[in-house]
Amino acid sequence: MDVLHVILQILLGITSLLLTLLILLHKGRGGGLSDMFGGGMSSGLSSSGVAERNLNRFTIILGVTWGVVIIALGLLVRFSTVGDS
């Protein structure tokens, strides 16, 4: 179990860094906090090119992978500590 724990932690670190980089690669579409309160209008969200769509798909896949790794690590920690006591 210890090897699996280390592998999942390394995978979590790699996916976290890649997810951060992919999110920063996305094209900005608004004015930040002012958009949240109705201060700006977003231009057509469906007007992205092929590269932007592929970036979106890869970001979603990596985000789901990141979430699965976190859940797996949580379950591994939870059940490994229950078995030790």
Verbal overview:
With 85 residues, the protein is mostly helical. The protein has one domain. 74% of the residues lie in helices and 0% in strands. The chain contains three helices and no strands. The radius of gyration is 18 Å and the shape is elongated. The chain starts with a helix and ends with a helix.
List the helices and strands and how they pair.
Elements lengths: L1 H24 L7 H4 L13 H35 L1
Helix pairs in contact: 1-3
> Which series of helices and strands comes N to C?
HHH
Number of domains: 1
What do the pLDDT scores average to? 82
Low-pLDDT runs: none
Please summarize the sheet with the most strands. Answer: none
User: What is the CA-atom radius of gyration, in angstroms?
Assistant: 18 Å
Helix and strand content put the structural class at mainly alpha
Shape: elongated
Distance between the termini: 16 Å
Question: How much of the sequence is in beta strands?
Answer: under 5%
Helix content: over 70%
Total of DSSP H or I helical runs spanning 4+ residues = 3
How many E-type strands?
Answer: 0
Question: What labels would you give this structure?
Answer:
85 residues, mainly alpha, 3 helices, 74% helix
Summarize the structure.
By secondary structure, the chain is mainly alpha-helical. The protein has one domain (2-25, 49-84).
